[in-house]
Structures are given as C-alpha cells and as structure tokens.
Amino acid sequence: MNLWNLAPTDDLVAFLIEAEQFDEAVAVTEAMLIGFEAGVQHLNLPSEYLPLKAEDQTNVSGRMLLSYFFVPDKVARLKAAKEISNLLLDEGNFRNLYLEKLGTLLYEADICDFLSVLKLSDPVPFSESEIRSVLRHPSVLSEYILETLGFSPQFENLEYSEFSNGDLRPSERMERSKNGVPNIWSMQIHRLSRACGLRLDLRIAAEWEELTKRKPFLFFNHTDYISEKYHSLDNVSCSLSWNCESAIVSAYLRTIGYCFVKGILDSANLAEYIVPALPFGEPLSDISPSQRPDFWPDFGNLNMSGSELSDAVLQHFLNEWKLPSEVPLFASGPLRSDERGIDIDWECMVVSEEDHQGQLTELFGHIYSCA
C-alpha cells in the first residue's frame, strides 16, 4: 500500500471518536488543520480566519456558532439565533463572547442583525450599558431594537454623514454591488424621495462610499464564478455576496436616520421604513424547515392504506385534502434550482386568498412592475 496517497478525513475522525480513540482523533484533526493552514497561508485572509493566537478550547464552539450566524441564509440564521439566545441565558462565558463579537461588527446592518438575537431571549441577558459600550455604529434600527428590548432609545445620537452638494453624486461602485441585492431598499428610498422632494438616492450612494472605507470591500463576480449560467448583463435576483447586501442596507439605515433627525421622516412612519431590515420577527420567528404547516396532509395514512400506490390513488388523496384560507406563497430559505447547488434565497409571505385579495393583487402587481 502506498501510504503517500492516504489523507486523513473527517470520516476517520468520526470513526476514532466512535471507537473511543480520542487521542488519535485529536492527532488526526491537528494533522488536517496543519495541512489546511499550509495550503491557504499564501492567501490574504482576514486575521479572524487564521488568528496567530491559539483559541481557548472552551471558546471554540461558541465562536463557531457566532460566526455561523452570519451565513447568508435566513433559515440558518434563525436556527443559529435560537441556539445563541439559549446559550446567552445558560452560559456566562458565552455572554462575553457575544459582546466581543458585537464589538467587532463594522456595518450597521450586521449590528442590527446580531442585536435582533436578543429579542428571542427572555429576560434580556445584558444591561443597556453593556450593549452600548461595544456598539460601534448605532443606527435608527439599532435604537428601535433597543427600545423593543425595554431600553431607552437615543435617536439623538444617530450616525450619518454630512455631505456638500458636490459630494452627492451617483456611485458606479454601489450600482455594481446592487446586482444580486433585493431592490426593496432602492424602492423605499425612491418612495421617500418622492414624498419629500429630495434626491435621497444620491445621499445613500455617498453614504455607501463612506461605509466601504471601513474595511476592504470585495465584489463577488458571479459571471466569473459560474459564467455558463449567468451572463454579465443579467440582473441576478438573488444575493450572491452578503458583504454587498450588508453595505447597501447599512447605507440605507444611515440615510433613514438622516431623514429622521432632519424631520423629513416622523416617528409615526419610521417603523415602515426600518422594520423590513430586521432579519427575523413575527411571524418569521416561528418558521422552521423541520415543521410542516398545520394543514399539511398526513402522508402516513396514504402509506397505510394497503392499496398499491398509483396516480389514481394519489390524485384521490390530494382531492380529499382541503386547503385552508391561508396559503403560503413563498418559503424562507434556500431554493435548489438544480442538482448542482443552491441558487436563490426567498422571503416568506403568507396571505389569505379570500380575505386579502387586494393585498395579493398589489403584491404580484408590485413584483411584475419591478421585473
């Protein structure tokens, strides 16, 4: 046997753990990590990916969970958020890791997403002073979240940039980054611009340019990644780069904060513009991919019928399935377009086909007008 062709794998580690050979499992894992580090050491990776200081073993799983929260998938974020909220109530050391992670976030959107996890905890595991001491970039949405947590909002301390008229101009780089980001933010800005008579689209572009100076901003070129599927002129309707979306939403929040401080937007209409930026909330906070809808048919009855499963039997079974008035139109989570991988991440919306026909018409009319 040529031992040079053997490579350790996670399957081998799992086997050694099952066989209670823990020292060997640790040795194999360390060998895998050494090989991985040697293979990527030439890459210009951020320090958090390959820290110089060895991590305390008790903190590894907690840091992995906090990093997993930022995976660009809504269902994954929700599942991670629920686990984080449980650990915040049970593990004292994990509270320090959460605050440490919160203090490293540079985009307003990421900060608000991370703060939203606290809405799942009862009681809130931190005091207001603990949170504000690590909050680097407060926004109109972060103050809204803190208010829902029972703290005193400080809308007077909102961050936004002061620009001269010469600084307010379109940004080609921002337009490029919007390819793949939901257009709800541009539509909200245009709607508010029409209401107040100001070119807020130029302000959000200027805010975006300022935001991207905080750390190196990299574009994900989807045509280079999968050119046989996407043309360079295609306006891809899914988010292929979470970094791009975080910057867009952050610039949007700073623009809304400017409008609120300047009196362009009043408190009565504020929630309408900022709540869509929340990562989850009612009713989305109850969505779980492992839970079927209450009205879903029991397919076990079909299998126990004793008759051979055929098209006629299946059609009869479906005919007996009575749909309720509420019908899920979209599901939150990844949609697999083909056998090669995940391409799209849909939002979730539930309407009643009888009671809210107007909303249904408005929804699809809005989608068609944006297509």
Count of distinct strands: 4
With strands numbered from the N-terminus, the spatial order across the biggest sheet is 1-4
What's the helix count?
A: 17
Classification by helices and strands: mainly alpha
Q: What's the average pLDDT?
A: 76
Number of self-contained structural domains: 2
Shape: globular
**Per DSSP, what share of the residues sits in E-state strands of 2 or more residues?**
under 5%
Distance between the termini: 60 Å
**Relative helix content:** 40-55%
Taking pLDDT < 50 over at least 5 consecutive residues as the criterion, the unreliable ranges are: 282-291, 329-339, 341-348, 366-371
Task: Give the helices and strands as they follow along the chain.
Answer: HHHHHHHHHHHHHHHHEEEEH
Radius of gyration: 24 Å
The biggest sheet amounts to:
2 strands, antiparallel
Describe this structure in words.
With 371 residues, the chain is mainly alpha-helical. It folds into 2 domains: 62-286, no CATH class; 288-370, no CATH class. It contains 17 helices and 4 strands. It has helices spanning 10-18, 22-40, 57-68, 74-90, 92-104, 108-115, 128-134, 140-148, 172-177, 184-196, 200-211, 222-225, 242-261, 267-274, 299-303, 311-319, 357-370, and strands at 326-328, 333-338, 341-346, 350-352. A two-stranded antiparallel ribbon has the order 1-4. Strands 2-3 form a two-stranded antiparallel ribbon. The longest helix is centred in the last third of the chain and has 20 residues, at 242-261.
